[in-house]
Design goal:
heterodimer, A: four-stranded antiparallel β-sheet, globular, B: alpha+beta, ten-stranded mixed β-sheet, binds adenosine-5'-triphosphate, binds magnesium ion
């Protein structure tokens, strides 16, 4: 099943001489359960693309369909609800709420949705993420890798259609990076989670099932990873 | 709970000091606005009570026969009726004058409440109370124990009453006896209504029920024999014309609006800062799917969480302050005011105030809430550093040279945080402006009321006259010889029409000229002081316009050459008889202001006599103004002299009490107004605190870095002090410029409003140097203290903590 479809996506910054075409006519689609890695040089437009997929930034032109729904036809409020229900975002800088503890940070999207927390799933996630002994800790009492695991937990908590990760390991050493990658792989396999991940690291990209390469805002390569 | 609200609460707990500052700001705003309501409604309550004491508690007086009682009794609108009935009316002829003496009986209740000067109340039939005008040196000369015959019955005087409100309805010479409570042919029904609303219409209905046909009067329909207690009705805004109640409400709403603007600025500032500080937080919330509505609601939730305790605290503070102020008021007022002040808060004022405060809080939270709702997740995700460094700093080398590197940093900080400091700057400037305008306002009131009352120095005023000039002269000598008098000016005069000044009628600055002579001692003093030759007439170039708002006016800028004096005959034809020339002009140095509508010209006795001789000689009259340390003793002594000589008319008045009353009234108003200004300054200071505290939290890393590269504690303190100084200076300058603008406007206004004579020189408002100085020092010191308090915690902080901790 096709879960994401992107058509002729463009994003411009600035005007006139200072015009930057961060995305230039990008089209592709992603099947349910795919693990896509996006690679490219710095400034090629990866983050821009991811933000537009995640509904946090608006494209200059083009369309994004998630589960067949035209995302940017939604108004502010519905877009927020879309983010809350369909998307899980993971950033390089973990962007946790400093005064909420691990558990509270993780359940944030559910609470915002005023839904009941699936305690069994939460427990399972916490165990999977290896945070059993840290649930009551505040973010500044955790290591970088642990913080990133919390933010992955937060992203997965809603069982989103898309898990979007922007250099999730950019701030971590190689051991912690590998652990995070394994977690993502695990969620992809265990929960059949669709993942789109940006990375600089070619080796890490090979963990994915498909690699899209971007250069100057265009897709220059899109290939499956042979198992 | 909604996670956004959970975060808001934790965040507030985390920033306790700042939350307290916000709560305090709201509390002080509440206090400010509620205490205004309290003050105005207490004023009205006290006004009501004073009016009741003076004019009675009833609303309508009906003068009618016995039958009216049955009609009035049935009226549903009427709460209670008290009656005074006329027993007898007698005419007495004593030395060419006819007196009408009217004897009344009244309700038991009313009788018992007659205030007595001395003596006792009538307890049996045949005993009467007389007004004090029947005693002293009146021709009747009655005292307690005396008897008087009225229509075949003899009455014994048992008491002397103070002037009473009912006298204005019953006539002047009112005597009261104990009666058998039956109505007579002439009765006065003192009616109290159940509700005063539309009292005059109710009066119309009652009068119509009594069969009285209205005539058209100046205030609408009038009914013969049915009179409103208009003084009391005015208090409720139920009088004929303007409604003081509405006016008071108007003034209240106006002041409220000014204060509300200030409060909104300050509370807005608190919320705005709170939101700006959490920009990134809201961004993250938005990115995980919080809707704009949820974020907006969370800001209002913060307003609720700080607003409710703030308002409760404010109400408590108002009660506390009200109690303290009323104590203070009664302490100051007790010696001179007959009534004690009471606190009162009318529900309408109370609810309007609370509504205002809620409105202020909502309005203050509005913009920040909307801004929070618009925060885009992308901004929060992308920007890791909030400090913008786009602008290139101008190099203010002079600051660096004057104040060192610390001054340079302080100055740059201030410039960088211009926007954040803006609201606080406005709030503080407003305090300065209010302080200065308040100050001018009081200078103006003091100046005008003291002058208007004609009381810069003298505190006893008197006049006496008799057809026997020797007697008058003798009294004059006696008074001048009184040892307890500091200064006395006795004068007599003649009023003339002014025909022309310098031969030109257009130059007539007034219609009348009072030619007066002074007692020889005062005359000589004037001559010596101003080097005037004896006999030369001199104009006292200072008139007080009493009709208008009482301000000093000097009608002439240069000495007129001549003044033509005239009189008017029976057919209004003009007869000019004398030209005064060789005039001199001096200011008034004795508080000698015999008339308010005429020029006062001092002449020698020959000139006055010459003019007086042109006409039939009438009574010789003298007036005097006296300055005495103990005016009460002087008043008594002068009364003694009057009793001894018995001039045909005599009058003495002692202004000491009035002066004291006025001084204290102004003091009381000053306490209230400066109190309000002080409160406003406090409100502004909570804003300073919030701004500085947050500013410093955001700059923690920067400070820590400065310290890590060797900024000493002393240097840090210097930097803070300089920042306070620059900030105070800036706020002060704004306030200064705007205040001066107001000073110009007020000066212009005075000139336009109080300038009946062209080219006259008016009282000049003193430029409020002192107020500005006090304002500047006050602002600087308070800012300094606030800044140091806000940063106390940070100064002891570990450098590494500050450098590594997440700052949002
Ligand atoms: N707010 C902005 N205003 C102007 N230009 C922007 C803005 N955001 C991004 N850009 C530009 O758009 C282009 C794409 O940026 P983007 O962040 O998507 O790159 P990226 O591929 O994620 O790079 P990196 O690997 O360094 O994170 C860059 O040239 C960048 O300078
Ligand atoms: Mg990027």
């Amino acid at each position: 099943m096709e879960i994401l479809k992107v058509e002729h996506l463009c994003k411009n910054y600035g005007k006139g001489e200072a015009l930057v075409k961060a995305l230039d006519d990008v089209s592709f689609s992603v099947e349910d359960g795919e693990f896509v890695a996006i690679v490219g040089a710095s400034g090629s437009g990866k983050s821009t693309l991811l933000h537009i997929l995640g509904g946090v930034d608006r494209p200059t032109s083009g369309k994004v369909y998630v589960k067949g729904k035209d995302v940017y036809q939604l108004n502010e409020r519905d877009l927020a609800v879309f983010r809350r229900r369909e998307v899980g975002l993971v950033y390089q800088f973990y962007n946790l709420i400093p005064i909420l503890n691990v558990k509270e940070n993780m359940t944030l999207p559910i609470e915002l949705d005023k839904k009941k927390i699936d305690q069994a799933y939460l427990q399972e996630l916490i165990t999977t993420l290896g945070l059993e002994n840290r649930v009551d800790h505040l973010p500044n009492e955790l290591s970088g890798g642990q913080q990133q695991r919390v933010s992955i937990g937060r992203a997965l908590m809603n069982r989103p259609s898309l898990l979007l990760a922007d250099e999730p390991t950019g701030n971590l050493d190689s051991k912690a990076s590998r652990e995070i990658m394994e977690l993502l792989k695990l969620s992809n396999e265990k929960y059949h989670q669709t993942i789109i991940m940006i990375t600089h690291d070619h080796e890490l990209a090979l963990t994915a099932s498909r690699i899209i390469t971007i250069e100057d805002g265009r897709i220059i390569d899109d290939s499956k990873v042979s198992a | 709970m909604n996670p956004l609200n959970t975060v808001t609460i934790r965040y507030l707990q985390h920033n306790k000091k700042r939350m307290l500052a916000t709560i305090l700001g709201i509390a002080l705003s509440t206090l400010l606005i509620l205490s205004m309501a309290l003050f105005i409604s207490s004023y009205q309550k006290n006004d009501e009570q004073e009016t009741m004491a003076k004019y009675g508690t009833f609303h309508i007086v009906v003068e009618n026969d016995k039958e009216a009682w049955n009609i009035l009794k049935k009226e549903e609108k009427i709460a209670s009726i008290e009656t005074i009935s006329l027993l007898t009316e007698t005419w007495l002829n004593i030395s060419d004058q006819t007196y009408s003496l009217r004897l009344f009986t009244m309700n038991e209740d009313m009788l018992e409440n007659i205030p007595l000067k001395y003596g006792r109340l009538p307890q049996n039939e045949g005993e009467i109370v007389i007004p004090s005008s029947f005693t002293s040196y009146s021709t009747l000369n009655l005292e307690t124990g005396d008897t008087i015959d009225l229509q075949d019955q003899t009455y014994t005087v048992v008491g002397v009453s103070e002037p009473q409100y009912y006298e204005s309805y019953l006539g002047e010479n009112v005597m009261i006896t104990k009666g058998d409570n039956t109505l007579t042919d002439v009765n006065y029904y003192f009616v109290t209504l159940k509700s005063v609303s539309h009292a005059l219409e109710q009066l119309g209905v009652i009068a119509t029920d009594l069969g009285i046909v209205p005539t058209h009067g100046w205030g609408g329909s009038e009914y013969e024999g049915v009179t409103p207690n208009i003084h009391l009705l005015n208090v409720y805004g139920e009088g004929y014309y303007s409604s003081p109640d509405d006016m008071r409400m108007g003034v209240y709403l106006f002041l409220l609006t000014i204060l509300a603007v200030a409060c909104i600025l300050v509370i807005y500032n608190a919320f705005a800062i709170s939101v700006t500080e959490r920009k990134k937080l809201y961004g993250i919330f938005a990115s995980v799917g919080a809707t704009p509505g949820q974020i907006i609601r969370s800001v209002f939730f913060e307003a609720l969480v700080t607003g409710i305790p703030g308002m409760i605290l404010g109400i408590l503070l108002t009660i506390l302050m009200g109690m303290i102020v009323i104590k203070l008021f009664n302490m100051i007022g007790a010696p001179v005011f007959s009534t004690t002040f009471k606190l009162a808060l009318y529900p309408s004022y109370y609810y309007i105030s609370l509504l205002y405060i809620v409105g202020i809080i909502i309005l203050s939270a509005w913009l920040p809430a909307m801004r929070a709702g618009k925060i885009s997740p992308i901004d929060a995700i992308r920007s890791k550093d909030d400090v913008k460094r786009k602008r290139r700093w101008f190099h203010f080398g002079i600051i660096k040279r004057l104040f060192g590197i610390e001054g340079d940093i302080a100055f740059k900080n201030l410039r960088r945080n211009k926007k954040k400091y803006r609201v606080t700057t406005i709030a503080i400037s407003l305090s300065i402006i209010l302080l200065v305008v308040g100050n001018i306002f009081f200078a103006f009131i003091e100046e005008t009321t003291y002058l208007g009352m004609n009381l810069p120095e003298m505190n006893v005023n008197l006049s006496f006259g008799d057809s026997d000039p020797d007697k008058v002269r003798a009294i004059e000598t006696e008074i001048l010889n009184l040892s307890s008098i500091d200064k006395a000016v006795i004068y007599s005069g003649k009023t003339n029409y002014i025909g022309a000044i310098d031969g030109d009628e257009k130059k007539n600055v007034a219609s009348f000229a009072n030619l007066i002579t002074l007692d020889s001692k005062s005359y000589q003093e004037y001559l010596d002081y101003y080097h005037i030759e004896r006999g030369r007439p001199f104009i006292i170039n200072k008139v007080v316009d009493e009709a208008d708002a009482k301000i000093e006016i000097s009608p002439f800028t240069e000495v007129p050459q001549s003044i033509l004096l005239c009189t008017r005959g029976e057919n209004n034809e003009r007869d000019c008889y004398k030209t005064l020339d060789n005039l001199e002009m001096v200011p008034d140095s004795l508080g000698l202001l015999p008339s308010t509508t005429a020029l006062t010209i001092v002449v020698d006795e020959n000139t006055l006599e010459e003019i007086q001789n042109l006409y039939e000689k009438n009574m010789s009259v003298r007036s005097a103004v006296i300055v005495a340390k103990d005016p009460f003793t002087i008043e008594e002594e002068i009364n003694r002299i009057f009793r001894q000589y018995e001039p045909s008319n005599a009058f003495v008045e002692n202004y000491a009490l009035q002066i004291e009353m006025m001084k204290r009234t102004i003091l009381l108003i000053e306490i209230v107004v400066y109190g309000l200004i002080g409160l406003l300054t406090l409100v502004a200071l909570t804003s300073v605190f919030t701004t500085v505290y947050t500013g410093i939290l955001l700059r923690r890393k920067e400070f820590a870095m400065l310290r890590s590269i060797g900024l000493t504690k002393k240097g840090f303190n210097k930097m803070l002090s300089l920042e306070s100084f620059f900030f105070g200076m800036k706020s002060f300058l704004y306030g200064f410029v705007i205040s001066n603008f107001f000073i110009l406007i007020i000066n212009w206004w005075i000139k336009e409003m109080y300038n009946p004579f062209r080219d006259s020189k008016l009282i000049h408002l003193h430029y409020p140097y002192q107020t500005f100085l006090i304002g500047f020092l006050g602002i600087f010191l308070l800012t300094l203290v606030t800044m140091h308090y806000a940063t106390k915690q940070m100064k002891q902080e570990n450098i590494i903590d500050a450098l590594t901790e997440d700052t949002f």
